[in-house]
Amino acid sequence: MPSLRFNTTIAAAGGTVDNLLTGSKFEYMPGPATIIVYSVAGVAGVDLDCSAGNTSETDKLEIPLQSVAGAGPSVNDDRVASFTAAAGDRLTVRLFNRAGGVNAVIRTLIEIRPL
Prior knowledge:
single chain, four-stranded antiparallel beta sheet, mainly beta, Jelly Rolls, globular
């Protein structure tokens, strides 16, 4: 089961990351899998979108705040999305910073569980 960890800083309000998986060997699914995304942010006002192929799985879902600075995400508390992807689907995980005037640090864990 591949697990991908990301620690990302996004510039103040309006900053985005178009796809955390760009360039990863898991950007395009080698086979069918369940995708589970966990994420926490250091500031309020950070959104996440997930899609597999042409199907949007979330729509600007607000990422929960970290319970302890520099920690997380916790697989028990911080699951933000769970969906299936078919072989050949392109996975995208987009991040949007709406926090006015503040850089946002986002910690994300993506688990890929082959079916």
